[in-house]
Design goal:
5-stranded mixed β-sheet; elongated; 8 helices; alpha+beta; two-stranded antiparallel sheet
Length: 193
């Protein structure tokens, strides 16, 4: 699915007019085009399914270290900065920090690939809970490991800038799969990093 920038331009012009402004005035004349280009960039992830994202970033490495099947070895990447847009209000979700952990099962992924997966998943109309679930699903496919955890903390402008207007409220979500669901030791390591 390609993003229809022509339709976006037309609709943005209509929104500007509906707001009571003149889309032809100097400051707004190029706004529909700028918004269409921005949407093409910030919603890039909408062009791909989770499976397609997994295929994009599927390069892994055979275990070079001696990861034991029942060991407590864990890979953890903390504070991956992402942003997204809330599907309910098209409002920005920002200052989002993603932590991803997994238990290797004979394969490891390059650390930058984890950040790339998180970025691409954020580039969709989303819910924070779904971002965590999508990242976990993609990494499970890439790694062949059920043992994946994703923790996300962020601020939602639909709550901070409008409505209740609680600017300091943060939302934290946990997506725990495989061993992370039941193992309190792993959960504690995930929190403490």
């Amino acid at each position: 699915m390609a993003i229809d920038t022509k339709a976006i331009k037309e609709h943005v012009r209509g929104i500007l007019a509906a707001l009571g402004d003149d889309p032809e005035r100097e400051g707004l004349r190029e706004t529909p085009d700028r918004v269409a280009r921005m949407y093409e960039e910030v919603f890039e992830g909408m062009n791909y399914s989770n499976h397609e994202i997994a295929q994009m970033f599927s390069k892994t490495f055979s275990e070079e270290m001696d990861f034991q099947e029942n060991s407590r070895d864990m890979v953890l990447v903390r504070d991956i900065d992402i942003f997204s847009y809330c599907e309910h209000h098209l409002a920005l979700m920002y200052d989002m920090k993603v932590t991803v952990a997994y238990l290797p099962k004979g394969r490891v992924i390059g650390l930058s690939k984890i950040a790339r997966v998180a970025d691409m998943v954020g580039k969709r109309l989303q819910l924070q809970e779904r971002i965590g679930a999508d990242i976990a699903e993609i990494l499970q496919e890439i790694l062949g490991s059920e043992d994946v955890a994703v923790v996300i903390q962020g601020i939602h402008s639909c709550m901070s800038a409008r409505g209740i207007k609680k600017a300091s409220a943060t939302t934290k979500t946990y997506t725990l799969r495989g061993a992370f669901q039941e193992n309190q030791f792993l959960q504690m390591r995930l929190e403490k990093g």
